[in-house]
Amino acid sequence: MSRTVIRGGLVITASDEMHADVLIEDGRVVALAATGTPTAESWTADRTVDAAGKYVIPGGVDAHTHMELPFGGTFASDTFETGTRAAAWGGTTTIVDFAVQSVGHSLREGLDAWNAKADGQCAIDYAFHMIVSDVNQDTLKEMDLLVEEGVTSFKQFMAYPGVFYSDDGQILRAMQRSAENGGLIMMHAENGIAIDVLVEQALARGETDPRFHGEVRKALLEAEATHRAIKLAQVAGAPLYVVHVSAQEAVAEIARSRDEGLNVFGETCPQYLFLSTDNLAEPDFEGSKYVCSTPLRPKEHQAALWRGLRTNDLQVVSTDHCPFCFVGQKELGRGDFSKIPNGLPGVENRMDLLHQAVVDGHISRRRWIEIACATPARMFGLYPKKGTIAPGADADIVIYDPHAEQVMSAGTHHMNVDYSAYEGKRVTGRVETVLSRGEPVITDREFTGRAGHGVYTPRSTCQYLL
Question: Which residues of the chain have pLDDT under 70?
Answer without folding.
Answer: none
